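REQUEST ID: PR-0412
SUBMITTED BY: lab tech R.K.
PRIORITY: routine
TASK: structure prediction, single protein chain
INPUT:
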Amino acid sequence: MTPTSEKDLAELVAVAKNPLEIIGGGSRKGLGNAVSGDALHTSGLSGITLYDPGALTLVAQSGTPLAEIETALAAENQMLPFEPMSHAIVLGNDNTPTVGGMVATNASGPRRIKAGACRDSLIGVRYVDGHGQVIKNGGRVMKNVTGYDLVKLMAGAHGTLGVLTEVAFKLLPSPETQATLRFELPLKDGLQKLRDVMASPYDVSGVAYRDGVAFVRVEGFEDSVKYRAKKIGGDVITANIWPEIRDAINVKGDVIWRLSVKPSDAFAVASQLAEQGFETPLFDWSGGLIWVTSGDGSDAPRQTVNKFGGHATLIKGDGHPAFHPEPAILASIATGLRAKFDPRGIFNQGRMA
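STATUS: complete
OUTPUT:
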């Protein structure tokens, strides 16, 4: 099923007899627990419906390819602040990311440390709930939400609360220039360097570590970038390595985990995993995000990160729940929300369970 209008989508949902698997461009298919159901494609809901560069606002239908949006923004020297990640490479496909899939997974990249996540730039949504009703929340300007902020709730819900039809974002001007600094350091020293830079006054927008090198990015006006780069030190490189870090292109394997921890715990977590035969090819967000690979089908990464109060998501692989178990009180709230938004339990059933 590929509806071409919000009205058609609402009618399909209202009369659906079977569970539905919501699919955008397919680039994130397989992210989360496996679900079964009739395929409901949102690719027929495509196009930018409003773009006001002067107001730094963009509205698009959920099936719009992300590349189409980024091209339109680049023409006006603007950008989505959170540098959205594509999961296609990590998941092993060449499908097209859509803006709806980006919102559904709250996909955010290296600039999250400065600009926040996808949900922080999301200012409005339209979606179809489990009754087949069209719901609107938020809008096209900032500070327009009264009552429940469903906008933030839909971001990261993986399509379990409703089918997104339209999303609205606040934007940022693209930086005039950027500089990437590199420091060849062993893991412990490299992660410490990233934390030191994050604690500095130099307003960095990227801090990552891979292959024995710590990378730091500064962005903004040219004179400011030169000044901050000099103060931070390191070797300036000309290559733009941040799309590679954003999409985790060096993270490969049959089993891939994504860990979230306190940056100060990153080295200890990586050391314990190394003792168990796991590799940590990429650290982002100054060590707060760790990518882990192994052919081992155990859930050792989740058990390890539990000791540090973090959480682990199984991005690729079988045999374990994709998402970290929630505390009982949060699990109860999540179950209650799904019962209200999707009383028939037809949207991506089991995706986040």
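NOTES: The radius of gyration is 21 Å.
REVIEWED BY: pending
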